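your task:
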Amino acid sequence: MLVTTKGIVLHSLKYSETSIIVRIYTEARGLQSYLFKGIRNPKSKTKAGLFQPLTLLEVVANLKEKTSLHTSKEVRLFQPYISIPFDIRKISIALFINELLYKSIREEEANRELFDYLWKSCLLLDCSENSLNCFPLVFTAELTHFLGIHPQPEYSENKPVFNLNESQFQAVVPEKDAYVIPDHGKFFHSLITTPIENQSSLHFKPAVRRSLLDSLLLYYQIHLPGFKPMNSHHILHSVLA
């Protein structure tokens, strides 16, 4: 069956001397793997550089029900980025988001709400002229909504400690479970209740941002089976410091 769909590039790898396999999160079918034949041939009209992380594409492919690898008939750049390729801050955030999505999304079925959120966030990152210091934190926190693991945002002065294992605020520091330190509880609450459009309204010191992001990534490891430790956030901390 021939299907045309928008998609967001998450990962690519060499398949042969001239071909590549690309993992793309699509509007029509969720996470899909596509074989692009001849892309690495110098004479190919479509270049491998088209498949950079988070590139927004339109793919025409022959989807077969009994295989996880589909053959692309046509691919084109749907919407080019204006600023991301030329801004080191945005490049670093894009690479972080790409790694986060690649390690957390497993759905091979359509999820329009998740796709729309990812597409919107990529365009927002590209066009934003505001502070981006909290963009990766808010994105990571808001993504939990679509992954079914969103923290319970019931913070109060009587319950300032967020228990990462139990996914809730509580009165005292847990004896065995991981937690967000009490001094950062209010910040964590602001983080998990702020939409990506309003990320520039948050202002945390660099040490607080590092602590909150580390806590969020630990939260992912606790609640998403198979979620492996991240690497790109170390570079992110340096670039956004």
